[in-house]
Amino acid sequence: MLGKSSDLSGLSVLGSFAHPDDEGFGSGGTLAMLVDRGARVSIVCATNGDVGEISDPALATPENLFQVRQEELREAMAVTGIQDVRFLGYRDSGMDGTPDNDHPDCLFQAQPDKVAERLAEIMVEVQADLVLTHDPTGGYGHPDHKMVYEFTTRAFPLAVDALTAGESGSGDRTWGPQRLYYVCFPRSNFRRMWQQMKELGLEPPFASQMVDSIGSPDEAVTTTLDVSAYVDIKRESLNRHRTQMRLDGAFAKMPEEMMREIMSTEYFTLAFPENADKNVDLLAGL
Questions:
Q1: Which pLDDT does position 8 carry in this prediction?
Q2: DSSP-assigned letters across all residues of 152-177
Q3: Is 283 within a domain?
Q4: pTM above 0.70, yes or no
Q5: In DSSP terms, which residues pair with 268 in a beta bridge?
Q6: CA nearest 112: which of 143, 146, 154?
């Protein structure tokens, strides 16, 4: 559902994600919609995606992948219409249980308070009314996703506290964080997509034993958004993450109409304020 007003020129939005490309599949259409309607949108990326895939050796090496992925995110956001792209500079932690978790520069080894404080500073700086980030499951359980969820959730009240401490005493507040949303990938959607891939003879990206445990519980979804009008922008933006887009992967081989259907709806959990009804308006109260 959408807010009634089409003009969002007074709205500031911050997307807080773990890696370059995390912004795209689950919220790329929403970001494009917000920009199209005049909102000021900023993106902060906690890591540089150092240990992500390299779809084509001609695009990057393991040594320079972090620089390539930074530039890919800037290009992707330029397609969406977002110029304010920030990096916290942490190393990608890799998947759970891998040696990359132990690298001293990775997000997994970062001091939680330090990261949360930095995110709160950015929220205050951009005067974010609406904040989007990963959900508690991390989508498919990536440790960086789950940590960014934790850090951003911790940062949100810190930003509110910083604002309150800086008030003049007049009681007039011209700005304040009002909505915190988690980007969701409903578990039933994962199951359906996995089954569709199997029926098409494609090898799904997740093993069969994982498909019942990854994704957000369906009952966690409070907000569903039709972004079909922005699917072309969303896909063009995602395609800028060239190192991560395998031409021989299951997603690339899915029929066009099926991909458009999958990408035309985005799902969120309203985390703050907590008294949300099902299908609450994304922009309620803003």
A1: 92
A2: HHHHHHHHHHHHHHT--SS---S---
A3: no
A4: yes
A5: 183, 223
A6: 154
For residues 128 and 175, give the distance between their C-alpha atoms in angstroms, rounded to a whole number.
8
Q: Mind listing the pLDDT tens digit for each residue in 273-286? A: 876 565 668 887 67
- Tokens linked to 137: 């499951």
Evaluate whether residue 222 is within a structural domain: yes
Contact 46, 211 (CB under 8 A): no
CATH of the domain at 266: 3.40.50.10320
Q: State pLDDT tens for residues 198-220.
A: 888 888 777 665 777 788 999 99
Residue 5 lies in a domain: no
Tell me, yes or no, whether 278 lies in a domain: no
Q: How far apart are CA 49 and CA 117, in angstroms?
A: 22
Beta bridge partners of 86: 44
Longest dimension (CA), the chain: 65
Domain of residue 194 covers 12-272
**Tokens 């978790």 appear where?**
101
Q: How many residues does the chain have?
A: 286
Count of domains observed in the chain? 1
**Tens of pLDDT along 66-103?**
999 999 999 999 999 999 999 999 999 999 999 999 99
